[in-house]
Specification:
outer membrane lipoprotein receptor (LolB), chain A; six-stranded antiparallel sheet; disordered N terminus
């Protein structure tokens, strides 16, 4: 489940569209659309040879969303305000934070907070997606330590209908794609479509609860790439967790007690996600993120601690 989730939600008159003349204005419109637009449709997620199909329902007025995975095991996430209902395996907060709706909202939040300094924002052409005209926006990184993004925003609302993750160091080669194959923009889903398929399902979690776990940890990372800052630090029963982000790309650093003498050093890749594990003293460090391998290596080299 984590693989596909790792693995990235004002109708205007024709005259009103004219004011959105550059990429930043379109990105601002996208933020508004995710907050104010109802929709429902079918999404396809492509990562190399792997494909997932999802049904998505969103009611902006009720701040309610539902994602249903249509391929593989039954998996379902319902968000009602700050409450998550998760059906299927996996950590629900990880599942939601990596979902398409959360990824789009993360991009919108980054725009509003001015956190895209490490990306050139460019206006592309007009293309069709799922029967709608869209404006293409290109987010081109200033270095090879992060991937690029290409967004297709519906002309009348600014709602993202397609996102492509690109390898900026390899001729803009697509790494991941997320696209609506059919969508109804401005249509409020039926109440039944916003409810979990299993009545009275009791796996409820609070998104906001993660903030209560925030603590000052002795761990940090030196010499992080430009734009990356520490966004959160948490302590749980299994260990410590640091999250660094530049607004779009993010890297997680997990620190756990080392249970095996010496520990193994390893590097791995799953699609656009790179990871590295190694021992540091009597701790195991695991660095993972949807970023190039060189970025993970840089974070790994910089992990340090004051354990006095």
């Amino acid at each position: 489940m984590k693989q596909w989730l790792l693995g990235l939600p004002l109708a205007l008159s024709v005259a009103g569209v004219a004011w959105a003349t550059d990429a930043d204005q379109w990105l601002t419109r996208m933020a508004g659309a995710l907050a104010q637009t109802d929709y429902q449709g079918t999404l396809v997620y492509l990562d190399g040879s792997r494909m997932e199909t999802l049904k998505v329902y969103r009611s902006a007025r009720d701040a309610r969303e539902r994602l249903v995975v249509l391929t593989g095991a039954h998996r379902e996430i319902v968000r009602d305000g700050d409450t998550l209902i998760c059906i299927g395996d996996g950590d629900p907060t990880v599942a939601y934070e990596g979902s398409p709706l959360a990824k789009w909202q993360q991009t919108a939040d980054a725009v509003q907070a001015g956190l895209l300094a490490e990306y050139e924002r460019l206006l592309g052409g007009i293309e069709r997606v799922a029967g709608y005209d869209t404006q293409v926006i290109v987010l081109q990184p200033h270095d090879a330590l992060r991937y690029g993004y290409r967004l297709w925003l519906e002309i009348n609302t600014g709602l993202p209908l397609r996102i492509v993750l690109e390898d900026a160091d390899n001729n803009a080669q697509p790494l991941e794609q997320l696209m609506f194959t059919e969508v109804q923009v401005g249509i409020t889903p039926a109440a039944a479509d916003l409810r979990p398929s299993i009545p009275d399902f009791n796996r409820h979690f609070l998104l906001a609860s993660a903030a209560t776990d925030a603590v000052d940890l002795p761990w940090s990372v030196n010499d992080v790439p430009a734009g990356f800052v520490l966004r959160s630090q948490r302590r749980s029963e299994t260990g410590d967790h640091l999250v660094y982000s530049d607004g779009l790309a993010s890297v997680s650093v997990y620190i756990e007690p080392l249970h095996e003498q010496g520990g193994q050093t390893s590097a791995s890749r799953a699609g656009a996600v790179h990871a590295r594990a190694f021992a540091l003293g009597d701790h195991r460090i695991f660095v993972i993120g949807k970023v190039p391998a060189a970025t993970i290596e840089r974070f790994a080299r910089g992990v340090t601690a004051d354990l006095r």
